[in-house]
Design goal:
A hairpin with a 3-residue loop joins strand 8 and strand 9. Helix content is 18%, strand content 59%. The chain is globular. The protein is built from five helices and ten strands. Helix 4 packs antiparallel against helix 5. It is α+β, with helices and mostly antiparallel strands.
Length: 170
């Protein structure tokens, strides 16, 4: 964390954190979170926006990411129930969107993700290089703790990877 700003308001069993803002990886997270204890389990609503985070600072211990660069943004709108973060995420519904434009990624990483064994072996043997990113986008609908992709794309100069799947927040 680079810095933190928060305003907490407790009113008759409803805790509002608005704004809840902090710097991370050279970017910022602006969010608003409401926890309503009138219900059992607690009901939560969260709106989170990540802006301009540097991808290599978000994943500093991943060797292939150290050579990568680029700015990442995300928008998350979720509501859920539970008396722990895990329970809240596991019951959540809403939307998640992630996007990256510009920057560069390790070509070895791109070829591994694209399941191109021949190209990956070539970069392992001959040395990695960076490849410019045209765009990377992920869009998910979340229902009962399962995030299902609506679109999942990574586009570079020599590789276009499309995908689909689900992520369990449970």
């Amino acid at each position: 964390l680079d810095d933190l700003q928060a305003r907490l308001k407790l009113d008759n069993g409803v805790l509002a954190l608005d704004p809840l803002r902090f710097g991370i990886a050279g970017g910022t997270i602006d969010s608003a979170v409401t926890l309503d204890a009138h219900h059992s389990p607690i009901r939560t609503q969260a709106s989170v926006r990540l802006k301009n985070a540097r991808i290599n600072q978000l994943f500093p211990t991943v060797k292939l990411m150290k050579e990568s660069d680029g700015r990442l943004g995300a928008n998350v709108q979720l509501s859920g129930r539970g008396n722990s973060v895990a329970a809240m995420l596991g019951s959540s519904s809403g939307e998640i969107g992630v996007a990256m434009t510009g920057g560069e990624l390790s070509n070895l990483l791109v070829e591994i993700v694209g399941l191109d064994g021949g190209e990956a072996i070539r970069f392992l043997g001959g040395g990695d290089r960076k490849t410019p990113i045209r765009c990377a986008v992920g869009s998910f609908k979340v229902r009962d703790g399962l995030a299902t992709s609506e679109s999942l794309v990574l586009d570079t100069e020599d590789t276009n990877i499309g995908g689909a799947g689900t992520v369990s927040l449970r």
